[in-house]
Specification:
Structural class: mainly beta
Oligomer: single chain
Number of strands: 24
Shape: globular
Order of helices and strands: EEEEEEEEEEEEEEEEEEEEEEEEH
Number of helices: 1
């Protein structure tokens, strides 16, 4: 079975539920996270699920680069999603007397890739087959299917990213924005998220989580 991680570190009991073709099993943790047995969490010691989050089949969460990944409560990570920490490149060697080759020419500095922590807020949904290398994704964010979130992107709270959008590296999306396109751009024709979504989306996520658990025949842990 795939590795799983939670805030309590427990894998809990497996549960079976019908979904698509055949049955799909979930590992239920003590914090009431449900992780598909067909999802993979790499480096689970660096991945924290805060509780009542659903990780679907085919998801890959890459915690094996050494950076912490924290996912809030009542999140939903759709099938085929890949979550990788943001990265940046630094020079791995300082300028000193030892940076010259034998013939006196200056050595090129070795490049070193470093990774940032990834924080995803609560009540956030990430659609199927989306890939993300964001530095941060806020709370009550809805990301559609087949999106690409570029390296070091920051998505603030209550944002809607339309399906198929491609966010370029280092894009910052302000709160309550709507994003679409390839490359993605902020929608500026008045189509923004209403302020009420800060209340409505958490309520919806609690209801959807309860529906999911009931379909499995389990206890939502409310």
């Amino acid at each position: 079975p795939p590795s799983s991680a939670s805030s309590d570190g427990g894998q809990g009991e497996g549960r079976e539920g019908a979904e698509g073709e055949g049955e799909v099993g979930y590992i239920k943790t003590a914090a009431h996270n449900y992780v598909s047995r067909k999802a993979t969490i790499h480096g689970p010691q660096n991945v924290e699920l805060r509780g009542k989050t659903i990780i679907e089949r085919g998801v890959n969460i890459y915690g094996d680069e050494g950076s912490k990944i924290r996912i809030g409560r009542y999140c939903a990570i759709g099938e085929g999603v890949a979550l990788t920490p943001a990265s940046y490149v630094v020079d791995g060697m300082d300028d000193d007397d030892n940076t010259n080759d034998d013939d006196g020419t200056k050595k090129e500095k070795e490049k070193v890739v470093k990774y940032l922590p990834l924080i995803i807020g609560s009540n956030t949904c990430i659609g199927c087959n989306t890939t993300s290398q964001a530095a941060a994704i806020g709370s009550s964010v809805i990301i559609g299917d087949n999106c690409t979130i570029g390296n070091r992107c920051i998505i603030k709270d209550c944002v809607y990213v339309e399906g198929g959008s491609v966010l370029p590296d280092d894009m910052v999306v302000p709160p309550f924005a709507v994003v679409r396109g390839c490359p993605a751009r902020l929608v500026t024709d008045g189509d923004v998220m209403p302020e009420s979504c800060a209340v409505v989306i958490p309520q919806q996520r609690v209801e959807e989580f309860g529906d999911f658990v009931r379909k499995l025949g389990g206890d939502g842990g409310h």
